[in-house]
Amino acid sequence: MSAAPLVHAIQERLREAGYRDITTPFRIAGVEFAFTAAMRGHEARALDLILLFDTTTGDFGDREAARVRQRVEALSRALDVTGSRYVVTAILAGALLAETVEALAETCRVLQVEGVAIGADGKPADDVAMRQLEDQIRVLLPLRLPEGTAESQDGNGPAVEQLVRALPATNKALLNAVIIASEQGEQAVTDAAGLAVGAPFRGDEGVQPL
């Protein structure tokens, strides 16, 4: 079975972001699971497990809300049995299955990708189409702050410079930690911010209150 061009475009963008393909079907807890496509993260996102469903032309029941839900729930149970820490994200590529999104949201993170123009080469047709695709899978992509080319008339410069000016000097350590972690994605930013904020308190460990 050949997946739709939209699925291939999503896979290609995720590969550029560091995700790797998983051969399907694959086995977990002795149970075989077949999906249109599957991917996993790398390094900071090593616990991300991505499942892709072709809701327009796909096999494996991708066009039936009930069957999609059953397969994801079965996989979730298998992961629980093995004690896996994978965070599952289901990407529904193509026709909107509103009831599927609502049902799956109880089990995993759900992203719907639709309305993206794909060119003859299997890639987003233009920059607008690429932005549409990226906006719909943004939570899986590294956070990149836009870089301005020049200082504006009202004193607002690039996003990073604006953030630096907005924070007081006492928060520079937090700022640096967040900017460095932003290349690794949302969870890395959250973890870095938590460590930076908690640092002063960790220094007081063992000190008895007055």
Question: What report would you give on this structure?
Answer:
By secondary structure, the protein is an alpha/beta fold. The protein has 7 helices and 7 strands. The strands form 2 sheets. A 5-stranded mixed sheet has the order 1-4-5-6-7, sandwiched between helices. α2 packs parallel to α3 and α6 packs antiparallel against α7.
CATH topology of the largest domain: Trna Endonuclease, Chain: A, domain 1
Note the main sheet.
5 strands, mixed
Low-confidence stretches: 201-210
Number of helices: 7
Level-2 CATH architecture of the largest domain: 3-Layer(aba) Sandwich
Shape: globular
Structural Rg: 21 Å
- Please provide the ordered H/E string of secondary-structure elements: HEEEEEHEHEHHHH
Distance between the termini: 70 Å
Mean pLDDT: 81
Strand content: 15-25%
**Quantity of strands, as a count:** 7
Count of the domains: 2
Tell me the name of the CATH class of the largest domain. Answer: Alpha Beta
In spatial order, strands of the major sheet run: 1-4-5-6-7
SS content category:
alpha/beta
| Amount of helix | 25-40%
What's the helix and strand layout?
Layout: H1 5-16, E1 20-22, E2 26-28, E3 31-33, E4 37-40, E5 48-54, H2 65-82, E6 87-93, H3 98-104, E7 109-113, H4 127-136, H5 159-166, H6 172-181, H7 186-202
Parallel strand pairs: 5-6, 6-7
Antiparallel strand pairs: 1-4, 2-3, 4-5
